[in-house]
Design goal:
Elements (H helix, E strand, L loop, with lengths): L1 E8 L8 E9 L4 E5 L4 H16 L8 E7 L11 H11 L11 E3 L2 E2 L5 E2 L4 H7 L5 E5 L3 H4 L6 E5 L2 H11 L34 H13 L3 E4 L6 H5 L11 H14 L10 E4 L5 H5 E2 L4 E2 L1 H4 L4 E4 L7 H5 L2 H6 L1 E5 L4 E5 L3 E6 L18 H9 L3 H5 L3 E4 L5 H6 L6 H19 L8 H7 L4 H14 L3 H17 L7 H9 L2
Parallel strand pairs: 3-4, 5-8, 8-9, 10-17, 10-18, 11-14, 14-17
Antiparallel strand pairs: 1-2, 2-4, 6-7, 12-13, 15-16
Bound molecules: zinc ion.
Length: about 500
């Protein structure tokens, strides 16, 4: 009987726990058994592995092969185990020297012809492996794996390349067969955003609101007619946000890696969702739970256009993550948590036709239709939105004659300065202040308290909205570089209710 042990990883959420592939080859009727969670994909793996081994010119042992995936109680998903299983079989049958296997970890799907295909979650794997080990991945995953700065990564096109490299390392083959580690990507200072705020002409009120929103990490709702530029502005929010820290960028990249979605490293995400989107697409889920849009927006912007058209159930899935900054997806036998710390930006028309209040008088909606449309948004969700901003449609003449707006770089500079004031004071953005911290970090004078008392009666503010006004006022005072929240800061914050 012969035996081999190969190291690999499963991926559960963003965590990549170690998995050992143990291969026993013994006398007996030819058979291949995989134990330790025979999920459909693992079973399919048998056929791919057998075919890939034969088509790569190796012998497939005509014996009893038992493959144990340990630990047994750990869920193992996907086809990422193909490569380690093939390596284990080749090693246990003496076609690869087993002595070097402890220095490597392997992930990758095999095609029937032996080619390696990319898999999801490779970045989580690369972040988890011990630095003493080299990680073998499909070549198409190599750049993604290297975003984990400490990892040593070898990208291979096919099974043959992996085997030749392993044999070259232990002196069994030609030294020319050794693969060179994939070079580290060069780090860019600041990511480049394709969309710039300079494209937004006029709209001083909305631009100002966007700057406040970026500085404090506040959520906002744009209200205006079609063509007023709501989407134009929302999509430029990432370009004025402070740059992601290395840890934040890695976290975002890991989510995209698990979701199998392309991601430009270091860029703040902007995800635009249509109201036909299902609750699962927004929250994440499926039999092997994948991150949804709220996690793909982590550390970035989730933009929901035509907010009142969304199904109420779909919007409800956001309520808990808006507070907890993560979403827990429960399955029959497991739970997966994905981060979901996103900035919510919504947009809506003022009425069903979109032109209520427009100077053109095009709107033909009846008052009760308008009320029903606006009432579609639940109070609790509206309560969670810090800034409500009216975006008027500008007459064509105004647009043509308006000078170009300030660029994103200029605005971002102010945002970074003001955000730093908040960080120095309380260690976080103003939107993240807890109710218990508000008195301490947002002290108010007599005049400020009077203004708030009047406003609270007039606007019928809930306790939650009241706190939101205070946090927005704090951000406005930070932008002004003032230590105290003044009456004018509060008045401006109230104007966004
Ligand atoms: Zn209308």
């Amino acid at each position: 009987m012969s035996f081999a042990q190969v190291h690999t990883r499963s991926v559960i959420g963003l965590v990549a726990p170690a998995v050992t592939v143990e291969v026993h080859i013994s006398q007996g009727l030819p058979a291949l058994t995989i134990v330790g969670l025979p999920e459909t994909s693992v079973r399919e793996s048998k056929d791919r592995v057998r075919s890939a081994i034969i088509n790569s010119g190796f012998d497939f042992p005509n014996r009893r092969i038992t493959i144990n995936l340990a630990p047994a109680d750990l869920p193992k998903d996907g086809s990422r185990l193909d490569l380690p299983i093939a390596i284990g079989i080749l090693s246990a049958s003496g076609q690869i020297d087993a002595s070097v296997l402890d220095d490597f970890e392997f992930v990758g799907e095999l095609a029937l012809n032996g080619d390696l295909r990319g898999v999801t979650g490779v970045l989580s794997v690369a972040c988890a492996i011990k630095s003493s080990r080299t990680l073998f991945v499909p070549k198409s995953n190599a750049d993604e794996a290297l975003q984990a700065m400490d990892a040593i990564v070898l990208g291979a096109d096919n099974l043959t390349q992996v085997c030749r490299h392993l044999n070259a390392v232990c002196g069994m083959g030609s030294a020319d067969d050794k693969l060179a580690p994939t070079p580290k990507p060069t780090k860019k200072a600041l990511p480049v955003y394709a969309l710039d705020l300079a494209d937004v002409k006029g709209q001083h009120h909305a631009r100002r609101a966007l700057e406040i929103c970026a500085t404090g990490g506040h959520s906002m709702l744009f209200k205006g007619s079609p063509g007023s530029g709501k989407t134009l502005m929302a999509s430029r929010l990432p370009s004025i946000l402070p740059p992601l820290s290395d840890d934040e960028a890695l976290e975002v990249a890991s989510i995209y890696s698990v979701a199998g979605v392309a991601y430009q490293f270091g860029v703040r995400p902007f995800r635009s969702c249509h109201h036909t989107m299902s609750a699962v697409a927004l929250s994440g889920g499926g039999s092997r739970p994948k991150p949804g849009e709220i996690s793909l927006s982590h550390h970035g912007v989730l933009f929901l256009d035509e907010l009142p058209e969304f199904d109420r159930k779909t919007l409800e899935v956001m309520r808990q993550p808006l507070e907890a900054k993560e979403i827990v997806i429960s399955r029959a036998n497991s739970q997966v948590a994905y981060p979901a710390n996103f900035q919510l930006v919504g947009a809506m028309n003022p009425c069903p036709c979109g032109y209520h209040g427009d100077p053109s008088g095009r709107c033909s909606c009846k008052p009760e239709q308008i009320k029903r449309y606006q009432d579609k948004l639940s109070g609790p969700l509206l309560d969670r939105i810090d800034l409500h901003v009216h975006v008027p449609a500008l007459p064509i003449d105004d647009l043509q004659n308006a000078p170009q707006g300030e660029s994103s770089a200029v605005v971002r500079h102010r945002v970074i300065t003001a955000r730093q004031i908040a960080i120095d004071r309380q260690g976080k953005a103003n939107s993240e202040l807890l109710p218990s911290e508000i008195d301490r970090f947002i002290p108010l004078g007599v005049a400020q308290k009077q203004l708030l008392a009047t406003a609270q009666t007039r606007l019928n503010l809930s306790a939650r909205s009241y706190h939101r006004v205070l946090k927005v006022a704090r951000t406005i005072s930070d932008l002004a570089g003032e230590e105290q929240v003044g009456v004018s800061h509060l008045a401006e914050a109230l104007s966004y209710r």
